[in-house]
Write a structure and sequence with these properties.
single chain, mainly alpha, 86% helix
Length: 66
């Protein structure tokens, strides 16, 4: 669990920085910008969703619900 939390702590600020700073300075047409923005959004939310899933799984297995 610690390695996943460490991965999430490192990943989220990195992709948030890319999404905010880099996408605003690179010249895209509207369609490419939307695709890049959506992809970085998925990449940004994936570690959060993974952490929530693992936390719920850990809590359910600890309580012997599953």
């Amino acid at each position: 669990m610690v390695k996943y939390a460490f991965f999430i702590i490192l990943t989220i600020p990195f992709f948030a920085f890319i999404r905010k700073k880099r996408l605003d300075t690179i010249k895209f047409n509207d369609f490419e910008y939307k695709i890049a923005y959506v992809l970085t959004g998925f990449i940004l939310w994936f570690p959060i969703a993974l952490f929530i899933f693992l936390l719920i799984k850990l809590l359910l297995v600890e309580n012997k619900v599953v």
